[in-house]
From TrEMBL:
Coiled coil: none annotated. Residues 57-66 have a biased composition (Basic residues). Keywords: Methyltransferase, Nucleus, RNA-binding, S-adenosyl-L-methionine, Transferase, tRNA processing, tRNA-binding. It comes from the Eukaryota. It comes from Salpingoeca rosetta (strain ATCC 50818 / BSB-021). Residues 39-77, 472-519, 732-798 are annotated as: Disordered. This is SAM-dependent MTase RsmB/NOP-type domain-containing protein. Residues 482-499, 742-751 have a biased composition (Low complexity). GO terms for biological process: tRNA methylation. Residues 67-77, 772-782 have a biased composition (Basic and acidic residues). PROSITE patterns: NOL1_NOP2_SUN, SAM_MT_RSMB_NOP. Belongs to the class I-like SAM-binding methyltransferase superfamily. RsmB/NOP family. InterPro entries: MeTrfase_RsmB-F_NOP2_cat, MeTrfase_RsmB-F_NOP2_dom, Pre-PUA_NSUN2, PUA_NSUN2, RCMT, RCMT_NCL1, RsmB/NOL1/NOP2-like_CS, SAM-dependent_MTases_sf. GO terms for cellular component: cytoplasm; nucleus.
Length: 798
């Protein structure tokens, strides 16, 4: 018989497993004694565990289904033994590494990864950001010395990445985060990553987008996109020519709904109207349709497809150290069918003469060459491997394997398909091709990146071209794929997990993760409603177009909202191709998580023209069409607006002041054209460097002041673009600087801010901006000291 405390404990647990009847819910007094007994029982259990020296279970705090006892104990990664006899035996047999390199290979796998990142954005802005980093941030690391006397090696460009836009530092992220000597550099990395100027991404994960050779007119599909580092590269390539709305598009898909929202966060900074996030199992991704010129529906085929498939992830051992403990050959064998289905579905969605990149963060030929060989064999005459040896010429790579060995968990070797009749998990498609097949498959064109060659993680990539339609299979592709995946769909969704780092872009299947067999939550997203399809909302559209002076060429038919009824909070814009996809596929089950760029948002003002104001996210799209409310300013005026937050209009240059005075209250666009003088002096000190790219930002014209409607993190980026030194760019209007760059409290700036506070609170509502407030702004020569802008002018010699 169970003890009383134990019995009550079991009763309490059982009671919490079902929904309480309504009658009992109305009688909380019935549950109170049970709770108190449970509390006493828990206390006794804790004492018992302490007495018996047992490890207590980890309790996961929080609400909802995730709260409760965590079955998986926390892992101290320092204690993980970086050895696995099965791993070494397996890969020695596969001969992925020459015998003379084996020691270097294993040494590299046991060492932590260096910190790597790439500079993002369009080419013009990225090159300028790189110059700022090299001149102001990287150089100071030469003078950093640790307590043991060792110095820090400054970041170096990754040798194979074009234009020195990717860098690596010979120190792991954990070391940088904890080191006092590198605190400034760590702050820089975090800050720039939040702003979107850099992407902390593993070096090998940068390779697949380059091999796709994406052009602005291409239609691109990223089948397994989350968390989105590679997706961001693809979007940048679509916009490489500086066009805010190119002809092409990028569709980023992921099977996990939560990871789709990770994609939203990762790609939001790029603000592309040619981008869409979908939530589907990649192996049964639906066929998409668009509207043809004659008004009929036509099938959409993609010019480029990226299939960075879920994998066992043993190429990530340097950062996912728990794989050392869990690795066995069956991990790859279990994933081979799913990987094959995803690659085949990608080929079905690919246009003839299009390219598809198949990649994994695994070293295993069962997940790599075997999958590629299976597709080449199955679609012989329609698919070929592409020789990419001329691309990224400074990248060291190993050729694909032509033969490999099949092993099970017990290291039993299977020489032929006949040997595996008693093992249903091993399929014939996993075995190496015959000699005749090897001659035309050209598997040596695959690329394997080994950790010891360039101090990276392990990676595999293959580029395939679709040379002809895949016979009659394309007419039945969805039904056949759905039937093939009917018993294994949960595997793709359930245990897919991030590789363990924010900069990782791989989907690693972890054997230890519990499988979510109940499926994902019901897909329930807000609708996509185009304004032109709602006649009753025509006044909203007309008011926006008239206030900002959008000409007849403005694509108003591309503007949409996310609700049918009620007030429209935000207005978005998409490209024509994205609109066509939404219009033709949403009702047929396309699960769109996110698309479009926010261009207008509702304010609380009731004044005509002020109901919706412009958004910084969409200014690159809307600005070319605006004929009203555009102010062309100087770089020094923009720096003043960014730095002081709400400067008085009469403190700006005369031309800029005149332009603002000609505007009524409300949102406006502030522009500094490319080639205009920046605030940074040339090397000879006789002039100012020209602006490397056009700077556009949204402002709000108040009665007496101008306010910059740009986020905190973006402000630093724009300050750097107009030429401000980092010591000023990283500061806000609450600090003032002398000519040596030292900071002190600025009572004058505070006075100006106090005078502007009422306006800050009312600007979005269009209300009183505090004109009756006393004007306490300090001028040069006042007792309170020079104003911030006066000091800036003296610093730069204006």
């Amino acid at each position: 018989m169970l003890p009383r405390a134990c019995l009550l404990s079991h009763c309490h647990r059982a009671a919490s497993c079902y929904i309480k009847p309504p009658s009992l819910l109305l009688l909380p007094s019935l549950w109170t004694p049970l709770r108190s007994i449970r509390s006493e029982t828990s206390t006794q259990e804790h004492k018992d565990s302490s007495t018996n020296n047992r490890m207590p279970r980890n309790f996961k705090k929080g609400k909802g289904r995730k709260a409760g006892w965590d079955r998986r104990p926390k892992t101290d990664y320092k204690d993980v033994q970086k050895d696995n006899d099965r791993f070494e035996t397996y890969y020695r047999v596969q001969k992925i590494v020459p015998d003379e390199e084996w020691s270097d290979f294993m040494t590299a796998l046991r060492s932590p990864l260096p910190t790597t990142f790439r500079i993002t954005g369009t080419r013009e802005s990225a090159v300028e950001v790189r110059r700022q980093f090299e001149d102001h941030y990287f150089s100071h690391l030469n003078t950093v010395t640790f307590s043991n006397g060792e110095s820090v090696e400054p970041p170096k460009p990754i040798r194979w990445y074009p234009e020195r836009l990717a860098w690596h530092l010979q120190a792991p992220r954990q070391f940088i985060r904890k080191s006092k000597e590198l605190k400034k550099f760590h702050t820089f990395l975090v800050q720039q990553n939040e702003q979107g100027n850099i992407s902390r991404q593993e070096a090998v994960s940068m390779i697949p987008p380059f091999l796709l050779d994406v052009k602005p007119h291409h239609k691109v599909l990223d089948m397994c996109a989350a968390p989105g580092s590679k997706t961001a590269q693809l979007i940048e390539m679509i916009h490489a020519e500086g066009n805010s709305m190119p002809e092409g598009l990028v569709v980023a898909n992921d099977a996990d709904n939560k990871r789709c929202y990770m994609l939203v966060h990762q790609t939001k900074r790029l603000q592309s109207p040619c981008f869409m996030i979908t939530n589907h199992d990649a192996s049964i991704f639906p066929s998409l349709y668009t509207t043809a010129a004659d008004g009929t529906k036509q099938r959409l085929y993609f010019d480029r497809v990226l299939a960075d498939v879920p994998c066992s992830g043993d190429g990530t051992l340097r950062k996912n150290v728990t794989i050392w403990r869990s690795w066995n050959p069956m991990n790859a064998i279990g994933l081979h069918p799913l990987q094959s289905r995803i690659l085949e579905r990608g080929l079905q969605l690919l246009a003839v003469d299009g390219l598809i990149v198949y990649s994994t963060c695994s070293l295993n030929p069962i997940e790599n060459e075997a999958v590629v060989a299976h597709m080449l064999r199955k679609h012989k005459g329609s698919v070929e491997l592409v020789d990419v040896s001329s691309q990224l010429p400074r990248l060291r790579r190993s050729p694909g394997l032509k033969t490999w060995t099949i092993m099970d968990r017990s290291q039993n070797v299977y020489a032929s398909p006949e040997d595996c009749k008693d093992n249903s998990k091993i399929h014939t498609t996993m075995f190496p091709p015959s000699k005749d097949e090897l001659e035309w498959m050209r598997l040596e064109r695959c690329c394997r990146l080994l950790p010891h060659h360039q101090d990276t993680g392990g990676f595999f990539v293959a580029v395939l071209r679709k040379t002809a339609p895949l016979s009659q299979r394309e007419s039945k592709d969805i039904a056949q794929s759905a039937e093939a995946a009917s018993t294994t769909t949960t595997t793709a969704n359930a245990s897919a997990a991030d590789a363990g780092d924010a900069d990782g872009d791989e989907t690693v299947i972890r054997p230890s993760d519990p499988v979510q067999r109940s499926g994902q939550r019901l897909f329930n997203e807000d609708p996509y409603v185009f304004l032109v399809d709602e006649p009753e909302k025509k006044n909203i559209l007309d008011g926006i177009l008239d206030f900002y002076g959008f000409g007849p060429n403005f694509p108003k038919e591309l503007m949409l909202t996310r609700s049918h009824g009620g007030k429209k909070r935000n207005v978005y814009i998409v490209s024509p191709l994205i609109k066509s996809i939404v219009a033709n596929n949403i009702d047929d089950g396309l699960r769109v998580t996110n698309t479009g760029v926010r261009v207008f948002t509702r304010s609380d003002s009731k004044q005509e023209g002020l109901v919706f104001r412009m958004c910084q996210e969409g200014i690159d799209v809307t600005m070319p069409f605006m004929q009203k409310r555009v102010v062309h300013a100087t770089a020094e005026d923009v720096l003043a607006i960014l730095h002081e937050d709400t400067p008085f209009i009469d403190t700006l240059s005369s031309a800029t002041e005149k332009a603002f005075n000609e505007l009524s209250e409300g949102a406006c666009a502030i522009v500094v054209e490319k080639g205009s003088p920046s605030v940074e002096k040339t090397e000879d000190g006789r002039g100012f460097r020209p602006l490397p790219c056009t700077v556009r930002m949204v402002g709000w014209r108040g009665r007496k002041t101008i306010r910059c409607l740009v986020g905190k993190h973006e402000r630093l980026h724009y300050k750097l673009l107009v030429g401000a030194p980092p010591v000023l760019a990283e500061a806000d209007g609450k600090k003032r600087y002398d000519n040596k760059g030292s900071s002190s409290s600025s009572s004058s700036s505070s006075s100006a801010k106090r005078a502007a506070e009422p306006e800050q609170q009312q600007q979005e509502t269009g209300g009183d901006d505090g004109e009756e407030q006393p004007r306490k702004r300090a001028r040069a020569g006042d007792d309170e000291g020079p104003s911030v802008w006066t000091t800036i002018k003296s610093w730069f010699g204006f």
